[in-house]
Amino acid sequence: MTQANLTIVGLGPAGAELITREAWDWLSGQSEIWVRDTLHPAMQGLPEGLEVKSFELSDEDANEETAGLSQLIRQLIELAGRPEGVTYAVPGSPLVGDLSVSLLMRAAKKDGWSVRIIDGVSFLSVVSQALGETVTAHWHIADANKLANLEVPNYPASQPAIITNLTSRELASELKLTLMANYADEYPVRMVHGAGTNMETVESLALWQIDRSPHIGGLTSLYVPPLESGRSFEDLQGVIGRLRAPGGCAWDREQTHLSLRPYLIEEAYEVLQALDEEDPEHLKEELGDLLLQIVLHAQIASEDQEFNMTDVLAGISQKLIRRHPHVFSALELGSADAVIKNWEKIKAAERRQRGEEEEKGMLDGIPLALPALTQAEQIQKRAQRVGFDWPEIAPVLAKIREELEELEAAENEAEKVAESGDLLFAAVNLIRWLGIDPEFALRECNARFKRRFGYIEKHAIAEGRAVQDLSFEEMDALWEEAKHCKDVERNKV
Asked: What stretch of H or E contains 221?
């Protein structure tokens, strides 16, 4: 066999007795090997005369993609250029769960170096035996270094996961914060230390406790059992797909993008209501109902071969990354105002790429279907971004007085409609100036009116009268009582 530039050898999951015959023969013919983990149990039983060299990795060299491995990769690629090439030995199997091997093979391919893989017994064999679990195709294998650098786990929580290379308590601390985005603090997990060795230990503990284990070391893996079905985004897609499939729900199968329009609006408003109520349980339910509409639209589009959910997710992910260069690249923006201005520049560039008219107005992208108050606020905010706004609040107040006078002076229906709109627009501008959401403010006002009017109705019923039988003076007096009734204001009556 032709000498490869780079040979990657699996040392197996435990002592040298689990090294394969092919790997042993290769190691016996080498003068040196390079390893990342000098504490691996197989180090004590390698062929005599074999020099083991390790890497000195700098924490400063770490970054999110390579989890501190970029220096190791660079050194190995340089060594691969020698006439004799280089042998890199890793725990377990090189093809299972080792991030350094994945990155190294990518770099070798880029530089044109040939690679030979000499497989080893996978750590999964001994870890699954220690756990008493059978590894199946739907298990997720993750590297602790990479997973700990994410904000949320990158696999469905309804799948079991084995997380490898959990080498320190510090790494475990970072990892558990990532996992807690999808799992409860008390979620039961198991840590396997030294699988396949005479020091093998299995710990059962809560997720929040994993960085307190005294046994964490070079041969530690974390097993995260699956959450019950229905806890992942993919599970929801499966439910919707089943509803739309032959033999599914007749109503769901009849729906189209257009027929679902009113439900999308309805569910969005119910989310707003839950937000107004500040009720987390209600909000959780309504967000689910709104998400149902999004997944249902994506399912219909997939069936019509227009696009699918992965296209939707890719589109919004790419857009967010593209529009946040100050987060995902080296661009520095010193303020929220600078972020907004750069956002507008990026959107303009996107329109040019799509071939849209260069002179398309800033206000053209505001949806016409928005509630009028919200639409007015959005118009004013976009105008403010380019400096079309009062420099202080006094002229804003003056404008309201001016519009009120013009409404009072209006002589016909058309003038009254126009001046009424101008007055409302000016009022929205004042509310925006105060940093208040006008839609929220009016919704709160409506809710207060309903509570206070309900107070009047209850008192009328208590007296055996209909509310329309009360005089205005009686109703006004009860209204004032309601205003000063704490239970009414707190929505307890």
From this structure: strand 220-224
Percent of the residues in the chain that have a pLDDT greater than 90, as a whole number: 46
Amino acid at position 79, single letter: L
The CATH 3.30.950.10 portion of the chain extends over: 125-224
d(CA 215, CA 303): 51
Distance CA 155, CA 66 (A): 19
Which CATH number is 234-323 given? 1.10.287.1080
Number of residues written out for the chain: 493
Q: What are phi and psi of 129, to 5 degrees?
A: -65, -40
CATH architecture for segment(s) 125-224: 2-Layer Sandwich (3.30)
Q: What is the mean pLDDT of residues 154-174?
A: 91
CB 269 within 8 A of CB 293: no
Q: State pTM to two decimals.
A: 0.65
Q: Quote the mean pLDDT of the chain.
A: 87
Contact (Cβ atoms closer than 8 angstroms) between residue 46 and residue 25: no
> Which has the closest alpha carbon to 92: 13, 7, 9?
13
Residues of the chain with CATH 3.40.1010.10: 6-121
Q: How far apart (Å, rounded) are the C-alpha atoms in residues 439 and 279?
A: 19
DSSP per-residue string spanning 112-142: T--EEEE----HHHHHHHHHT----TT-EEE
pLDDT band of 66, cuts 50, 70, 90: very low
**Domain boundaries 6-121, corresponding CATH code:** 3.40.1010.10
For 94, counting Cβ atoms within 10 Å of its Cβ (0-12 exposed, 13-18 middle, 19+ buried), the class is buried
Position 59 scores a pLDDT of 44
What is the CATH class of 372-436? mainly alpha
What are the structure tokens assigned to 87, written together? 């042998």
Q: First-to-last CA distance in the chain? A: 86
